[in-house]
Amino acid sequence: MVSSDQRRRQLAREKYVRQQQRREEKRRKDRRRNTVVAAVLAVVLASGGAVYASVALSDGSKKGSDNAAGDTPTTPAPSPSEEESENPEPKLTVDQKASYDMALKTNAGDITIAMDASKTPRTVNSFKHLADKKYFDGSKCHRLTTQNIYVLQCGDPQGTGTGGPGYTIPDENLDALGKAGSDGSVTFPAGTVAMANTGQPGTGGSQFFLVYKDTKLPPTYTPFGKIDAAGLKAVQEVAAAGVEGGAGDGAPKKAVTIEKATVTKK
């Protein structure tokens, strides 16, 4: 007969094995995904044959956390509880009726982003949580695009385009820019700030992009902020310097480092 103490030890071992299996599956998926994150997906639009590039990217976990964004197990597996998760989405603590400013002090100039928590509460909450922890301080804006789409992408402390906070947040406010046209896109006006993702719903992490010129994209990226005039000018100056090596998509030639990020309630 198995004693209660033996049964507890058996259950603990089984739980440990399940956790290890989940973690190993996530690591395998991270490695597979990272082999393709640098590729830019060109999509030919139905009307007029115009081409735009996807902003989708891997927003994986920071410092190898097991909770990689966008992971979907190929076989059913128990979902870890919040207690087991190393980096659960932060609890909602922002005032959902208030507006907030995210101030980015960069070597290229100060950028202030106005955010409305009534429209994107979980996105604003996540940015406040990360900024309060100095998550963005010292990080580089790793990607600039100057052909077909016009954005500067930031928010990865690793500076590779694969880093993230170890949790994901849901899409919000996707209808803010209007209904998609026949080509499946909407216009993200210059000055818009939106979340990057893996190309799948609900896979936002910490990476975001600053639109410096009107850009057509699918309405699948959470628009959560608006850049102030001085900040937009600073981003446009970075864009004018171009991409390293003269390409249309890559690290900005004029390197941009977020020296300090703060989020404050208005």
Automatic annotation (TrEMBL):
The keyword Lipid biosynthesis does not apply. Residues 25-34 have a biased composition (Basic residues). Gene3D superfamilies: Cyclophilin-like. Residues 106-263 form the PPIase cyclophilin-type domain. InterPro entries: Cyclophilin-like_dom_sf, Cyclophilin-type_PPIase_dom, Cyclophilin_A-like. One of its GO terms (molecular function) is peptidyl-prolyl cis-trans isomerase activity. Residues 1-24 have a biased composition (Basic and acidic residues). Residues 1-34, 59-93 are annotated as: Disordered. Keywords: Isomerase. PPIases accelerate the folding of proteins. It catalyzes the cis-trans isomerization of proline imidic peptide bonds in oligopeptides. This is Peptidyl-prolyl cis-trans isomerase. It comes from Streptomyces cinereoruber.
